Amino acid sequence: xxxxxxxRATAPTAPLTADAAAASAxxxxxxxxxxxxxxxxxxxxxxxxxxxFLAHARAHAEFAVDVVDLGxxxxxxALSRDPGPAAREVLERISPVLAAADAFTVVTxxxxxxxxxxxxxxxDWHFTEWQAKPVSFVSYGGMSGGLRAVEQLRQVxxxxxxxxxxxxxxxxxxxxxxxxxxxxRDPAEPAAAAKVLLDQLAWWAHAxxxxxxxxxxxx
Length: 219
Fold this sequence. Notes:
Layout: H1 3-10, H2 13-26, E1 31-37, H3 46-59, E2 63-69, H4 85-100, E3 103-109, H5 117-124, E4 134-141, H6 147-159, E5 163-164, E6 169-172, H7 188-214
Parallel strand pairs: 1-2, 1-3, 3-4, 4-5, 4-6
């Protein structure tokens, strides 16, 4: 090979490397997913469901995951424009997490055909934090698998100008699905459902984040 041939063979290498570096630098940040554990009930089963889902969410390439656990971050149901010290302390911890999120997953039980008061309080203490963001649901309970709670939550989050994801993950008779260590006894089907949910959530989170970058949402 003569010198000219060698130069022609190697010349494209540097520009391609530079292009790849530029593309990498321009790549959007990973989506921030806030997972809300809704139950604060004594003896709750929510953390078992949540840890199962969190393992799938953290393994998903699109998401960086934060957790808001209402068992340790309880807000009063009496709303106030000037909250007291206890409520202010909770809000200072959780409001920035919700504001920074690109998407949400709510892990909720069903209590008496509805969702926990702790979750309604969290929703009602915030507004702009939910706007123009997607919300997905992982529910659990008895025969209904928490789906009646989810249907009510869709109406609530519509009022918050949020977009709810069609596909859910639900556990009917939830206690029987998990062993004493919190592992699912038959994991293939729920794992597939979690992937569908997370893929849909990522699509909507990207679409809404990109749209807001072009035109801020004015709800």
